Amino acid sequence: MEKLMIGNCPNPIWFVLLLCFLSSLLFVLFDYLALSGGKQNGATFILNHFANDGTSTSSNYSVQSLNNQQTQETVSNTKFVKNLYSCSGRYIYIHDLPSQFNKELLMNCNSLMKWINMCQYLSDLGLGPLVDKNESVILKRGWFVTNQFMLEVIFHNRMMQYQCLTNDSSLASAIYVPFYAGLDVGRYLWGFNVSVRDANSLALVQWLADKPEWKRMWGRDHFLVGGRVAWDFRRQTDDDSDWGSKLMLLPESKNMTLLSIESSNADNDFAIPYPTYFHPSKDRQIISWQKKMRRTKRQYLFSFAGAPRPNLSNSIRSELIDQCHSSPTCNFLGCYNGANKCEDPINVMKAFQSSVFCLQPPGDSFTRRSTFDSIVAGCIPVFFHKDSAYSQYLWHLPKNYTKYSVMIPLNDVKDRKVCVNETLLRVPKNDVLAMREEVIKLIPSIVYGDPRSRLETLEDAFDIAVKGVLERVETARREMEESKLLNKKPSFK
Ligand SMILES: *[C@@H]1O[C@H](CO)[C@@H](O)[C@H](O)[C@H]1NC(C)=O
Ligand SMILES: *[C@@H]1O[C@H](CO)[C@@H](O)[C@H](O)[C@H]1NC(C)=O
Ligand SMILES: *[C@@H]1O[C@H](CO)[C@@H](O)[C@H](O)[C@H]1NC(C)=O
Ligand SMILES: *[C@@H]1O[C@H](CO)[C@@H](O)[C@H](O)[C@H]1NC(C)=O
Ligand SMILES: *[C@@H]1O[C@H](CO)[C@@H](O)[C@H](O)[C@H]1NC(C)=O
Ligand SMILES: *[C@@H]1O[C@H](CO)[C@@H](O)[C@H](O)[C@H]1NC(C)=O
Ligand SMILES: *[C@@H]1O[C@H](CO)[C@@H](O)[C@H](O)[C@H]1NC(C)=O
Ligand SMILES: *[C@@H]1O[C@H](CO)[C@@H](O)[C@H](O)[C@H]1NC(C)=O
């Protein structure tokens, strides 16, 4: 009964299709020669020129000093290019929080998580240990064993490099609160009562609300980053058996913006990409990586890296694993406890680079870090639920999701109405090529650059997130000013 559909995809011409598909693949892998990635002098000059920006509060720069050549070359390769012209409207002030909210957490890194010692992942400003192996599936530089929960540390360190920092909060458009919210609650998710879990959150909002910066916009220009899913900060009751902290349900937090790896449906919650293993420090590393991914030969139709969720009744993972095992065109990377192959960047990149499609079913939550690993590898993500990406990464992924991904409704898999291999085989060759090109173009905008340097012209996931926050705060500011004007009328009577 269980395996009713397995081996029984009702399509008599699958073999022909398969042959067509595989042979066409061999012929269509051509290289794009347009981007040399070699000459970076213009951009480097701009970088040095603008690098002083952070320590000064004057904001206008001459446009003439730009070398358009490089900028244009890069524009053709990606959608997002930095605003190199001016800091006006982009200044950010970093709150200097007491160390209990960030540094102390790192100092006690061996007690951050119940099952893992996180200290190993703190090296290189939160990127984790450098992958120093001569392996053809990665580049010589820019690869790290990055843990998926380190986003808040990486983001903080990237922010220290932001071009438009100011020490004068009155000039700032937005205020960054470098609280390591996920690492903080991560210590207490299992076996601690709610007062322990909430203690630092309560202390934080108290500290913030006492600062002069708070009253300017009642916190609506403040933002923070959580390296865990937003539900971990939205505990609905004060019952000890309920999950997470209530950080984001405190009155002050409701006025702030939270960026996290998976958002809830609250309107001050925004999802930004999980960190991947790739942290480039130069535009040209990204450009040569993109070239490499265009050239890569992909011998499998699809891959799945993950583990089943036997205890989640709605999970389709076991079904997908069965389908993968019985399909010779599928590559399965099992992620089971113990020596976890899935946390080795070489293994993950090998699997995804050798596949045309990468399955991204929900796990414990809707989203997965694997989605971003697959984009980095030029592997077209296959989603089973809109909340795994489409309703989440609004700033970073294209609105028209058919451009870069395939959607197979979860219920169709559950009800065994579809065989994944056949659905994917039916995608026309030209669509596959167009989608892959779109995925490869997304790479710069979903990776976090190495915080020890700065990409010259390309915008990374950090830049796009900051832009999103600044626009949001600007809208809030306009709204507040408008309502102030409106409210004034009655007070003049
Ligand atoms: C597709 O998957 C089914 C099992 O789900 C398998 O029986 C069939 O042989 C596969 N077809 C191809 C073309 O791989
Ligand atoms: C802010 O002040 C600190 C300490 O005085 C200094 O190290 C830093 O460079 C200043 N940053 C900016 C953006 O002015
Ligand atoms: C920058 O300078 C240009 C030309 O001098 C001027 O038009 C523009 O308003 C200035 N922008 C800012 C933000 O000061
Ligand atoms: C890296 O591997 C390639 C072949 O895989 C080899 O030609 C090259 O010499 C190696 N480089 C180093 C530094 O080991
Ligand atoms: C919560 O747990 C801490 C220690 O883990 C304990 O000191 C405290 O009394 C507990 N609070 C409540 C309300 O149970
Ligand atoms: C949140 O903002 C509103 C105005 O938008 C303000 O009235 C309220 O007091 C703020 N809440 C806190 C806790 O500051
Ligand atoms: C599933 O639940 C059983 C019983 O509650 C438990 O023993 C087992 O560890 C769980 N398995 C997983 C993978 O969580
Ligand atoms: C979305 O993208 C697909 C593929 O590129 C295209 O055919 C379709 O017209 C687009 N839809 C919209 C609404 O732009």
UniProtKB/TrEMBL annotation:
Pfam families: Exostosin_GT47. Its main location: Golgi. One of its GO terms (molecular function) is glycosyltransferase activity. The chain crosses the membrane at residues 12-35. Residues 86-420 form the Exostosin GT47 domain. It is found in: Golgi apparatus membrane. GO terms for cellular component: Golgi membrane. Belongs to the glycosyltransferase 47 family. This is Exostosin GT47 domain-containing protein.
